[in-house]
Design brief:
binds adenosine-5'-triphosphate, FAD_synth_RibL, 168 residues, Rossmann fold, FMN, binds flavin mononucleotide, disordered N terminus, five-stranded parallel beta sheet, alpha/beta, 14% strand, transferase
Length: 168
């Protein structure tokens, strides 16, 4: 049993010393309810939730995150649902996976990673973990923002020409 970045602790279902470890991962730049949904969904698939936060240099399929690596890791680690947040490895994605030793890896509903390709790569590395996919969170009211990209687009549309201290 480990103590996570937010100090929370979980016992295994029967109080045994080997809790089922669930692993989530992502960029998590500017938190929103879609992130919370994903992390709660992932947490429900195990007894203990670990999260790998992607390094800026490894975010290549979309715009680079605005917030620094450590800030994104610290925000995720402060959430009640998360036992421990880890900054990803700069080069070898399997280093933190091996250290964490997950029983189940939970991919996000829209993550570009291919489930069977990851399962094959894990098997080749000798890591015995199930690979599953989380569900999506739909907006619950008009205007709810469920994507970092959407928040940034709105911010640029509405505040793009103003400083944060107010109208010029
Ligand atoms: C099993 C697994 C392990 C990963 N480990 C790392 C890692 O160690 N370092 C890292 O920078 N990214 C890692 N990633 C990648 C990111 O978490 C993420 O998938 C991607 O770079 C960011 O895009 P997204 O937030 O749109 O998914 C890993 C992804 C998976 C599926
Ligand atoms: N609306 C949502 N419902 C469920 N999961 C979500 C939702 N939005 C994001 N996630 C999940 O959160 C994880 C981290 O996502 P990421 O940081 O890429 O957020 P994002 O807001 O979708 O980013 P961007 O808008 O830049 O693509 C991913 O696994 C993603 O599937």
């Amino acid at each position: 049993m480990s103590e996570g970045t937010n100090g929370s602790r979980h016992d295994g279902e029967d109080g045994a010393d080997s809790p089922r470890i669930a692993l989530a991962q992502g960029t998590f730049d500017i938190l929103h309810p879609g992130h919370l949904h994903y992390l709660k969904d992932a947490a429900a698939r195990g007894d203990e939730l670990h999260v790998i936060v992607a390094r800026r240099d490894n975010v290549t399929h979309k715009s680079k995150p605005v917030c620094p690596d450590r800030q994104r890791r610290d925000m995720i680690g402060a959430l009640e649902v998360v036992d421990e947040a880890h900054l990803g490895h700069p080069e070898d994605l399997f280093v933190p996976v091996r250290e964490i030793g997950p029983d189940v890896i939970v991919l996000g509903f829209d993550q570009h990673h291919d489930e069977s390709a990851i399962a094959d790569a894990l098997a080749a590395e000798g890591i015995d973990a199930e690979v599953t996919r989380a569900t999506a969170r739909e907006p619950r009211y008009e205007g709810e923002l469920l994507s970092t990209g959407d928040i940034i687009d709105k911010l640029l549309r509405e505040r793009g020409r103003r400083s944060h201290s107010g109208p010029e």
